[in-house]
């Protein structure tokens, strides 16, 4: 058991505080012989990096990642770097800490933030920038996710912001290609333009707002997931809920499924040419009985509005006196935006873990359903 | 790692298929010296037991539980039975299997069910009654949850059905006392009456319908939960998502939080008389930064409609031929109903696990926040 | 984390007390499609079963095992039973409990036994027959080991008693075929005859004696084991040390290696015809760097003399008064004898676990060393 | 599951290769509010550091450790640094790599070393200085052990070299105070003088030799350890066996116990004044039934001779051609010497883990046995 690890066979342990010397992670269990260039990890980190638009925190962190172990290159590999099967440690040094910004909340609890809970549990907290509870920790997740993607050859994982505040996208305009064209990871160009105006208002009002993120994996082989308590969707739910500020997770139709009737919700099947069934719908979001079906894996999660706002709210001090708190540090008006690459990373890590789990128990790569033939059973 | 275990320190491993000889669980890590009578476990099981109204499956299973290990009584304990700290094994024998009901789906995949996914993963499945993927497995969860409740002295965990199909309760009429007065665990007497008519229609149509369950724990001490990847809410999300047919999980305001502004969502605090803050709202649902705040812990989850319906749906056979499937076995028209005690049990198990985790790392019972005093720091 | 489980991917959880209703285990993670007949498990249990000679306890336990879950047979499998990938629960009911034999040690601590330690830790203990600390628990290990053997096709695991009290075998007479010809699992027929006389004396004196067991696996593929903290030898050491009364574990030359010089200890290699090296010696016992080399895996462990003896020893009562303790129950004069099949079972479980771990990370079956070819590296 | 972690609640994950940029560890689960100064960790590292006498490798590594996370100091703590309950990451940069020393063994396997096994398992290895299999990894263990010691207030853990090659100490001269007076951690001044001459001969002959280390913990409270598969001695066995080059582990009398009779081996008890029994002997080495008894915890382990020697040995190349191998790099003539602080560190980590495990399940600090009183049982 480890409080700061996730995954079992593709196992990620993160460390670091917002204003400490560095943050990072150790990825254990990664298969050997996978080509891994630090630039690939950096590319994913750059998508999550703060300060890239006026809609995210202005903290300037290059988030330069360094690989400390677990890879090897020599002349026999033509200088290319490969994983070796040993733990891959990644480190990102913190650069732009302005710790004095936080000195005044040293003794006060920001409403909606983890301040009070950490103090109540541990009796001590690194309050600078939120310490361990800062969203800065998610940089380590994104770095680990970049490695997980390399393990998942053939699987494409993409995320998008599908709602900001009360404003959802028009799903008829959903276009993955739009996601990189706006600072919101929004797949709907029209909505993105409206959101820019809306979020400017929120930002100038010293307020913040929530969001909903959708992450989809395509090319997932059938058979990933381990019932009953290692279900693929259960692990995804935990992974997404562990991201800062997340308050809800859905798979497929999610809460809307509660209102459906059995015959509406059942994803019908027809025989496919490759011996695998073709699904006629995907209410299930790619998982049945905790196991992937080969359909797109669809997960959504809701992020609450940033707790650190410029509007004063009633609170208490450490010694239980009343106080009004407003947070002057640099913050994201909507932490949901930068949660998009984090959600992708978490899905990648969960899938990599389950790929390894499948190999372990079933002994083969996951794939098309075998037609049952008694003679194919292992003989003694 | 274990596919069929959940929890770390209060660890539950379940086993058993729907139509095998027995199902059960092993609860490992339970503290010693807790009085435990088999009747207490049976009482919880009886709430989940099928065949108690026309709205649940007519399979007649007494679900009689037997304790195989981990407890002890002698004349020194006045004959009362106590836990000993060793693993507690519980067994429930299956009695009313009608396996021939299922012979015709031996070679066909029920849409929306785990049939195809299990076959694709394992190449073999016990199709009788759904085998391992049957909701019958949740009896073992409820039994384990009954033990977890004994560990959680002072914490009350209650569940209710708050939506069935598209019909939600009126929250103004929410009354915990009503939950036991109707076959739906519905906290709104008016809604319960309407639901009976509605569900009769669903049932007679050979259809099924989804539901939303809400589970609330009161009396939870501040400090339970272990950031970053052992967050209380992340573990709850996994626990609830692991229940059969669940497609979404929310904590506190859940998805509704996405539409809120920061100042609306922040749960303000005022100093309390006992040195602990008083919260003025509970949008967070009792968790901040993955750690309990002492407020009621609020979790909701959505259950999809039962996949086993009498309406024929298009599907495929094991050898990839087209087939129309309808399921003749005895089934719940709304599996969400019996999911209420299961949700309570899962929350109890998660809280018991985190109580033990807190004791381990912090070394004390969780409780009110200590006022920070440097001299209270452990000296060398 | 689980106190009563071992293994990670081939994971065994045991339960049960010596005089409770039943003992057993849950084996989780076993691959599917392995033929498994209850008679195969029973055969291994029968080798460990008590009361088979005058040199083991006279308790008469049939140790009849029952499979509760995780296997399936139907007409498509010609009635043969196969594993399904779901947890396999095994149960053995206790039959011949004579609990009143132990009533007098209810309040006294047997020197060298776990009585005092259990009471000190838990404040309560099931003292009947030693409760959870009884060697009866090892029946569950042997049952699990029988399943592990099925996973390890091509690997032969055999154990032998190589020393009883101060009397070691003559290694020049070591003959695996002799092991089944005497009640000691002794590979040296001459020693076995001498031991019978010796142990009769021990038994009649109301005393007991220790032993050394050697377990060897042949046919182990190269590559099993996961450095640094999942080393094959480290897991073997824990597995063997967890057996009742074990006080020491060695791999290969073990403690004798301390006295060797580097050039003596180095197992030299020569090229083999199949592309794999041929080792010229096996001081290492088949493990280098925590990874199997393909040589025979050799493990020895020392068992202390049975603590339950008829000779009175000074001790204390629960309320700290002096007492002389002698144990009248039925006991083995040398628990080391029945530890032979237990040691084999533990090695089988460890190897099965590492086989699955290897498949997970490396993605292939373990085997001959691949000649390094840069083009064989996974391309992107 | 993690290949590179040990411990469950006090959980250590290490990373790093001998000639990579850095090595280190993440310690997760450490209790909060423990004062921790980097100098305390450095002091332990300095005892293990190479190049301190002519009897260890001449590689010059300052082993300067840096704390990256998990501690906090401000004016309220008077500048003293305390643990916060978040993961503590430690990093040691490699400085004195002479990788070209190893270029010639790039394609050859050193007999007795992990070279062949790593290549066979992973198909790739960082051969520079042994890569991950280098004893340099143990620096991370010692650093983690220094933190573990801080968790174990009141427990003293000391190690000594008790045998080098065939030369054991005279136990009548055992004096802990001597351990720091010689370069061997030898508790027998006379033996230390003889060993210096002996080891000079070994070193000059380009050979190497094995050793036996003894580690003893005093002040261990009664009750640590979790049967059946979390036994204190089983976890110690795994911890010690996971150290490079270790081939055997003993608790208490170890293998010598096999030759004892039951009445010799039973550690008799007499009532003590403090309500706890006084033991009259310690054959058990402080553990009964896997649980500590309050007696000194005694563990010994055997280290084989260093595999890297200047004497040529027959071996094979990667492509299976014959080769004679001799290792020119800088090496310890007896790796057992520097294993002494490593063994101490491993015992500290195991004890810290079990202290936290005890707190979790039993809910109190381990301590004197409670006199059984039914009314002290938890009431409902």
UniProtKB/TrEMBL annotation, chains A, B, C, D:
InterPro entries reported in the protein's UniProt record: Chorismate_synth, Chorismate_synth_AroC_sf, Chorismate_synthase_CS
Cofactor comment text: Reduced FMN (FMNH(2)).
Keywords recorded for this protein, A-Z: Amino-acid biosynthesis, Aromatic amino acid biosynthesis, FAD, Flavoprotein, FMN, Lyase, NADP
Top-rank taxon: Bacteria
Cofactor requirements of the protein: FMNH2
Pathway, per record: Metabolic intermediate biosynthesis; chorismate biosynthesis; chorismate from D-erythrose 4-phosphate and phosphoenolpyruvate: step 7/7
Enzyme class of the recorded protein, top EC level: lyase
EC number assigned by the record: 4.2.3.5
Record has Flavoprotein as a keyword: yes
UniProt-annotated binding residues for NADP(+): 48, 54
Pfam families: Chorismate_synt
Catalytic activity from the UniProt record: 5-O-(1-carboxyvinyl)-3-phosphoshikimate = chorismate + phosphate
CDD domains linked: Chorismate_synthase
Protein residues bound to FMN: 132-134, 244-245, 289, 304-308, 330
Quaternary context: Homotetramer.
PANTHER family the record matches: CHORISMATE SYNTHASE
Summary of the function given for this chain in its UniProt record: This reaction introduces a second double bond into the aromatic ring system.
Similarity section: Belongs to the chorismate synthase family.
Protein name: Chorismate synthase
Lineage: Bacteria, Pseudomonadati, Pseudomonadota, Alphaproteobacteria, Hyphomicrobiales
Gene: aroC
């Amino acid at each position: 058991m480890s409080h700061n690890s996730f995954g079992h066979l593709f196992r990620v342990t993160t460390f670091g505080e917002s204003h400490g010397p560095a943050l990072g992670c150790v990825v254990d269990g990664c298969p050997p012989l996978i080509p891994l260039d630090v630039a690939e990890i950096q590319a994913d980190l750059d998508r999550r990096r703060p300060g890239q638009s006026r809609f995210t925190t202005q903290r300037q962190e290059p988030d330069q990642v360094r690989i400390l172990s677990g890879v090897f290159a020599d002349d026999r590999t033509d200088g290319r770097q490969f994983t070796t099967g040993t733990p891959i440690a990644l480190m990102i040094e913190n650069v732009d800490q302005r710790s004095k910004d936080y000195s005044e909340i040293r003794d006060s609890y920001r409403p909606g933030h983890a301040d009070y809970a950490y103090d109540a549990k541990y009796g001590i907290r690194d309050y600078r920038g939120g310490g361990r509870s800062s969203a800065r920790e998610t940089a380590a997740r994104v770095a680990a996710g970049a490695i997980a993607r390399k393990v998942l050859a053939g699987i494409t994982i993409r995320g998008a912001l599908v709602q900001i505040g009360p404003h959802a996208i028009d799903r008829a305009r959903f276009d993955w290609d739009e996601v990189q064209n706006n600072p919101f990871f929004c797949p709907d160009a029209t909505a993105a333009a409206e959101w820019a105006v809306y979020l400017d208002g929120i930002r100038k009002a010293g307020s913040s707002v929530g969001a909903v993120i959708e992450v989809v994996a395509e090319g997932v082989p059938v058979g990933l997931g381990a019932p009953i308590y290692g279900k693929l969707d259960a692990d995804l739910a935990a992974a997404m809920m562990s991201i800062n500020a997340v308050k809800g997770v859905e798979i497929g139709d999610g809460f809307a499924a509660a209102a459906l009737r059995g015959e509406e919700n059942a994803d019908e099947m027809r025989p496919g040419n490759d011996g695998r069934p073709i699904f006629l719908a995907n209410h299930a979001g790619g998982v049945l009985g905790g196991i992937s079906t080969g359909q797109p894996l669809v997960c959504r999660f809701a992020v609450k509005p940033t707790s650190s706002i410029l509007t004063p709210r009633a609170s208490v001090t450490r010694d239980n006196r009343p106080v009004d708190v407003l947070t002057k540090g640099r913050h994201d008006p909507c932490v949901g935006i930068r949660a998009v690459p984090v959600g992708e990373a978490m899905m990648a890590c969960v899938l990599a873990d389950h790929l390894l789990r499948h190999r372990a128990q079933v002994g083969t790569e996951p794939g098309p359903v075998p037609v049952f033939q008694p003679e194919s059973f292992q003989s003694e």
